[in-house]
């Protein structure tokens, strides 16, 4: 009979009644510290780089010009032929005389750009 009663005793029965003072005590803070550290690691290794990549892609899509080679979400590479300012559609040529209209958000990257970067100016002779 005692073996059965020992089995039914809850672990809470063995705890002390005094406690350590709650969450803001040193013991409570130490129990939360691993979770804070895990969140910081996830933020700096996963979340922040993804946000920076999205920001860079939005800047590339905003600066897209005629003649740029782009990659669509479906894996199709084409050359930008026409950008419609009044809508979010872009006409790209995927083969000679084959043009399709895509929505700007379906472009995943700009493969090559005809726009010249600002720091690639011709060096001054002299």
Automatic annotation (TrEMBL):
**A biological process term (GO) from this entry:** protein transport
Q: Which SMART domains match?
A: YajC
**Gene Ontology CC:** plasma membrane
Q: How does it sit in the membrane?
A: Single-pass membrane protein
Q: What are the protein's UniProt keywords?
A: Cell membrane, Membrane, Protein transport, Translocation, Transmembrane, Transmembrane helix, Transport
Membrane-spanning segments: 24-46
Q: Subcellular localization, per the record?
A: Cell membrane
Do you know which PANTHER family this protein is assigned to? SEC TRANSLOCON ACCESSORY COMPLEX SUBUNIT YAJC
The subunit structure is:
Part of the SecDF-YidC-YajC translocase complex. The SecDF-YidC-YajC translocase forms a supercomplex with SecYEG, called the holo-translocon (HTL).
Assigned protein family: Belongs to the YajC family.
Record function comment: The SecYEG-SecDF-YajC-YidC holo-translocon (HTL) protein secretase/insertase is a supercomplex required for protein secretion, insertion of proteins into membranes, and assembly of membrane protein complexes. While the SecYEG complex is essential for assembly of a number of proteins and complexes, the SecDF-YajC-YidC subcomplex facilitates these functions.
**Protein's name in the database:** Sec translocon accessory complex subunit YajC
The record lists the organism as Gluconacetobacter dulcium
Gene name on record? yajC
């Amino acid at each position: 009979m005692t073996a059965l009663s020992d089995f039914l005793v809850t672990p809470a029965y063995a705890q002390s009644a005094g406690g350590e003072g709650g969450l803001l005590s040193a013991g409570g803070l130490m129990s939360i510290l691993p979770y804070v550290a895990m969140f910081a690691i996830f933020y700096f290794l996963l979340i922040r780089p993804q946000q920076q990549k999205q920001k860079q892609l939005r800047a590339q899509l905003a600066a897209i010009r005629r003649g740029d080679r782009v990659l669509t979400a479906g894996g199709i590479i084409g050359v930008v032929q026409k950008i419609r300012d009044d809508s979010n559609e872009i006409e790209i040529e995927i083969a000679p005389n084959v043009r399709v209209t895509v929505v700007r958000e379906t472009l995943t990257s700009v493969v090559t750009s005809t726009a010249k970067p600002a720091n690639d100016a011709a060096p001054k002779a002299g």
